[in-house]
């Protein structure tokens, strides 16, 4: 096993240049958004978290590769190429969602701040998409879980669940909608736990049970929870509550509740697809990578 040593090749490569640009642009976007305003809306807080965490992940990956620590990580616990490509895919999704949120909620004819942050966010998203495209086109990089279909579906499930949770509104005094919040919240940590266990291959191999069978049980529970939410959320959100005539997309409670409804059905579909893939894996069929 090679000992870790310092190498500037990680910075001089196209990949290293992309990481540096990602770090700089996310930091600039974070700073501009923070200095120009503090809406303290859940969408704004989510965007600030994304612009804060994504460059930290890029920085950690760069440092690990610069000191060749990933060679030790590869031997001990995970597929490094798969992990880094998966992180780039996740960052692409998150920065894209931030761009869409700012374009919808904070842009107006006189809102220079909103335009600036949105344009900067577009650049951040483009940089992460460029890294994802580059990694996926590189035949020498492995895609064993996170960067493959089974793991990417899990990332999508967690991503959509986060969008749902930050969009929840109009549930006060409605027990049925409070149940929906529970139904949205329970699968998310279990999804993240499943992703982590599958990334850490050594840990996965030490488990006294099959992670696929555990995942299948968890997916069945998640599907049942989402089915209940898919019925209750639109029923109790829109019953006797038609769309108002004056309902701008950036400030209308009805529109945000409609977004939650659509995301609920999308995540239900993702969990069903995930269950099918998991069952095929247990039955011995080869899963797509």
TrEMBL record:
One of its GO terms (cellular component) is membrane. It is a multi-pass membrane protein. Residues 145-283 form the MARVEL domain. It is found in: Membrane. Its main location: membrane. The chain crosses the membrane at residues 20-37, 43-68, 88-107, 113-133, 145-170, 176-201, 213-236, 256-285. Keywords: Membrane, Repeat, Transmembrane, Transmembrane helix. This is Myeloid-associated differentiation marker-like protein 2. It comes from Carassius auratus (Goldfish).
């Amino acid at each position: 096993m090679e000992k870790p040593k310092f190498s500037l090749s990680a910075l001089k490569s196209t990949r290293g240049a992309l990481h540096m640009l990602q770090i700089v642009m996310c930091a600039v976007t974070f700073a501009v958004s923070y200095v120009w305003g503090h809406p303290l809306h859940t969408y704004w807080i989510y965007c600030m978290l994304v612009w804060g965490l994504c460059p930290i992940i890029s920085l950690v990956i760069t440092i690990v590769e610069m000191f060749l620590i990933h060679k030790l990580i590869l031997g001990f616990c995970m597929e490094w190429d798969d992990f880094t490509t998966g992180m780039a895919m996740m960052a692409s999704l998150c920065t894209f969602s931030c761009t869409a949120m700012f374009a919808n909620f904070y842009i107006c004819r006189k809102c220079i701040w909103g335009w600036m942050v949105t344009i900067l966010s577009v650049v951040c998203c483009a940089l992460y998409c460029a890294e994802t495209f580059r990694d996926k086109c590189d035949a020498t990089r492995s895609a064993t879980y996170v960067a493959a279909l089974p793991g990417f579906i899990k990332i999508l499930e967690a991503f959509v669940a986060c969008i749902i949770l930050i969009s929840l509104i109009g549930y006060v005094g409605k027990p049925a909608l409070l149940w929906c919040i529970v139904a949205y919240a329970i699968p998310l940590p279990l999804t993240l736990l499943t992703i982590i266990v599958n990334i850490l291959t050594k840990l996965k191999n030490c488990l006294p049970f099959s992670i696929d069978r555990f995942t299948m049980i968890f997916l069945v529970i998640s599907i049942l929870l989402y089915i209940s939410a898919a019925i209750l959320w639109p029923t109790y959100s829109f019953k006797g509550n038609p769309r108002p005539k004056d309902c701008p997309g950036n400030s209308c409670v009805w529109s945000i509740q409609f977004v939650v409804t659509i995301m609920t059905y999308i995540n239900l579909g993702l969990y069903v697809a995930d269950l099918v893939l998991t069952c095929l894996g247990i039955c011995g069929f080869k899963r797509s990578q």
